[in-house]
Design a protein that fits this description.
Alpha-Beta Plaits; 9% strand; ferrous iron transmembrane transporter activity; 3-stranded mixed beta sheet; mainly alpha
Length: 326
Amino acid sequence: MIRKELRIILLSLGISLLLTTAKFTAYFVTHSVAILSDALESIINVVAGGFACYSIYLSGKPKDANHPYGHGKVEFFSIGFEGAMIFIAGCLILFKAAQYFIHQPVLEEVDQGIWITGGTAMANALLGLYLVRAGKKLPSITIAGNGQHILTDAYTSAGLIVALVLIHFTGQTWIDPAVSVIMGLLILRKGYQLMRQSISGLMDETDMQVVDRVIAILNEHRHRTWIDVHNMRVQQYGIDYHIDCHVTMPYYLELSRAHEEMKAFEELVDRELNGHEVEFFIHIDPCIPASCQHCQLSECPVRSHPFRSKVTWSRENVLPNHKHID
């Protein structure tokens, strides 16, 4: 799978390099600051693609003594680096646009700029869609993130084409730096979003969508011996997950039976989260008399209280570190 990811990101890198060359050609032909802004963003595509190649290579390395959870978190560094580069590019674009408001350039060959920019926008849109779909299918947050960035590049190029058309027909050159300011602000926003995603991953921020999915799996396929699940924590390492939780089970189960139940628990979640490797750390809690009201084992030989209701697991009762005894 890692080789496939590398082939995909190398393809993205090669195409981005060609498109960057085309955009700078358009800038030298037209002297448009908006086209220069677009070209500067494309440089980030090339730099980020190179860093992504390394992160994919490193994330594919097996676990070792120094990295017991693997090397997957390097992918968060990758998208953080890409976000920082995009943010810097946005600042440079705004600075350049401010200069052009003071000294507006004389634009040339705007029609050629429209055709070149239109071709690069179409190519970026196709490449971005391919990368996003490939990133979801593999799955790879690095490839998907790179695809989202390239799609953003395509959208800004589309807006740039509209501006160039207006300049071509109206002759109002102030539109050029004005559009550059808008593009710069959009690029700053995208850079912030990627850096925010990177920090969230590096700080082990819980992905509630994954938590909800795991909880839904357990609700749908629960065993009667799984009386309670609580203190659940989900951490992401690249495309892999590490899940900790406590599971309350009948205290009288033999160790071999309890082990079989936990193996079934792990295989269930691992199977349903297809495409992700999941590592578990499950602590088994013995049931207490207050657990009887939620225990579905009607044939339990030590029941001290009648069954009252089945607990439907949710974020509110699975994440806290306490048993469901009320």
